[in-house]
Every structure is written in C-alpha cells, then in structure tokens.
Specification:
With about 210 residues, the chain is of the alpha+beta class. The chain has 4 helices and 5 strands.
Length: about 210
C-alpha cells in the first residue's frame, strides 16, 4: 500500500513554476523566492519553539526602542530679499552723499511720518508731465507705486526736499547705492518731493535711445 506523500510549499512552488511558461530569468527569481519562503516554513515546522522565541525577542526589542521618531522636515532658507523686515519695502532711504553726482546740497534726516507722507502722495505723480520732454508728448508716469524707489533727503536753498529716483526693474544692490540708468523711457523717472507741501516737483522721465 502506497503512503500518501506530504507536499511542502517548496515542492508546490516548484511544480507551479515548471508548469508555467515563463522566461528563464523570471523562473530563477521565482525559484529563489520559493526557496526562501519554503525554508521559513520548514524552519517553523521543525523548530516551532525557536521561531516563537525569536519572535518574542524581536517584540521586546521593538518595545524597548519605542515609537519611530520622524525627523522634522528642513525649513526653507530665507531669501536675501525677505530679511530684514525693511528690505521687503519697495523703497529705501539713502544718504544724499550717495547721489552727489546727480544732486547737490546737504543732507537731512526725515521722520517716518515724512516718508509715510511721500508714500501716501505717490498717486499725485500721474498728474505731472515730464519737464524734460516736449509738451506734445505729454509723457507721464501712470503707476509710480509699481517702481522700485530710492529716496535721498537733500536741502536746497534752505528747503528740505526728498529726491526720488525710481526704476521699473530691480537692480542688484539698489538698497545700498544709487542706480543710474541711461535711457529706458518710462521705465525710469526722477522727481523732488516737498514734505511741507505734500507735492512732487520737477518730474523727469528718461529718454529713449
């Protein structure tokens, strides 16, 4: 009388692989996987106490380590333009000495309220026509608040004024030194601001090459 044979997972996997039409590469990978799984099954069948003991040790070790700690994601670096706070503003107040080649006079220190008055008066700029252009062109600055602006406090003939140097595109180091651009048309303009009168004077717009 024949004894019934016990088919292990290893034998079953080999029989399945042999019956399937697979490439040799896939057969080798499948055989390796079945061998590993079959070995684990055989080890658990022959030595169940060792398997359970190893499981207990692994569980104790995991509990001792505690929950997995996730490192915080690195914070994005601040850009140069984002710090300090004042550098976010589209304007800067510079000493008149930095603009000696463009304007003459001694400097003075405006208050925050006087600079705030200049900013609040910017909507008056479109009312002025460029003095350095012929009247027939009627050249004006429509949105002065959209320009980067340098403010130079200067005293001329005993009157405190602020010289405004404005340009459309951001220029490197414009917060530290005066920007001089030749031509450009309405991309660049200059004017004097009278903080006592809350008015702009002598608007000039760059020429066109």
């Amino acid at each position: 009388m024949l004894k019934p044979s016990i088919t292990t997972p290893l034998q079953m996997g080999a029989m399945l692989l042999s019956g399937m039409r697979l490439s040799s590469r896939i057969r080798w990978i499948g055989a390796l996987l079945i061998f590993v799984l079959g070995g684990c099954w055989s080890f658990g069948t022959l030595f169940p106490d060792q398997v359970f003991s190893a499981y207990q040790k692994a569980s104790d070790w995991i509990r001792a380590v505690g929950p997995i700690q996730h490192l915080p994601a690195p914070a994005p670096m601040l850009s140069v333009d984002a710090s300090p706070e004042g550098s976010r503003k589209p304007y800067v107040v510079l000493s008149v000495n930095a603009a000696a080649q463009m304007i003459k006079g001694r400097g003075w220190q405006p208050t925050e309220a006087e600079i705030g008055g200049l900013e609040a008066s910017l909507p008056l700029v479109p009312q002025l026509r460029a003095e350095n252009w012929l009247p027939r062109y009627d050249l004006r600055i429509e949105h002065p608040e959209q320009y980067f602006r340098q403010y130079f406090p200067v005293v001329q003939k005993g009157k405190k004024l602020i010289y405004v140097n404005a340009f459309r595109d951001e220029i490197p180091n414009w917060r530290q030194r005066i920007v001089i651009i030749m031509d450009g048309g309405t991309c660049c303009w200059q004017a004097f601001y009278d903080p006592a009168m809350h008015a702009f004077l002598a608007l000039r717009i760059n020429g066109v090459a």
